[in-house]
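Researcher: Here's a chain I'd like modeled. Treat it as a single chain, no partners, no ligands.
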Amino acid sequence: MGGRLTHSSVPYVLVDGTRVADDWDDLVDGALDHPIDLDEHGNPHQNDAVWTATNSGGLGGYYDCSGWTGGIAAAGVTGATSAAGGLWTHADTFHFCNLNSRLYCFEQ
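Model: Modeled as a single isolated chain. Structure tokens:
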């Protein structure tokens, strides 16, 4: 995540305006101000898995379903929409890649 996103100096907010983090450093410090628990339409999603392939500090390269090409035998790292701590991006290290999971989208 860290190498693919602009490291913003402005707040990260949900679609309803709720502040998630003050800036990039706050986003990857291991604790969010609020979980990323709304979809793009503002609908709540509690405790859903989200594909991330990152550790809690936003560094990538962790179990990415064999480069996002793997099937049943491959595994990936997911975060949790209910988490405000490091679990928002690194909750499960062995999530089977044939399972449907959400994605976080960050506007840059």
